[in-house]
Design a protein that fits this description.
By secondary structure, this protein is an alpha+beta fold. The chain has 1 helix and 9 strands. The chain is elongated.
């Protein structure tokens, strides 16, 4: 009887491990439900950096958001949130310009600001 219970327990453990592995791979392969829509690309005067203003939409249960990402000029915008600025609402009323090779001025209004970085990779962000 003990031997039978041990065999059942080991079989159950192997089955459970198999199912957990399958669940992990299934859920890790799900597509990203968020999408970025490019609004504006603003390149630095020295052509080293670009600041990208975009709208991010993560489906019906969330609102659109205005986001800003700093990238090297040869990089593509990844499908992720902004690394500089994230705010609720549409990016319609934003004005972004490079004051120099290392200073970016950002003007805009939002209902709620979620992220607001003032410096990244030697580039400074001034919010007006």
């Amino acid at each position: 009887m003990k031997k039978l219970l041990r065999i059942i327990g080991i079989s159950f453990g192997i089955l459970l491990l198999f199912l957990l592995t399958k669940c992990y791979y299934f859920f890790s392969e799900l597509p990203d439900l968020c999408a970025n829509t490019l609004i504006e690309n603003i390149t630095s005067p020295d052509k080293k950096w670009k600041v990208v203003l975009f709208e991010r939409d993560c489906g019906a249960t969330t609102d659109f958001s205005s986001q800003i990402y700093l990238l090297r000029v040869d990089e593509k915008l990844p499908n992720e949130g902004g690394n500089i600025y994230i705010a609720d609402g549409s990016p319609d009323n934003y004005r972004i310009n490079w004051a120099s090779n290392s200073i970016v001025k950002i003007r805009g209004n939002s209902r709620r600001i979620v992220k607001k970085i003032t410096q990244l990779s030697g580039v400074h962000f001034v919010y007006e």
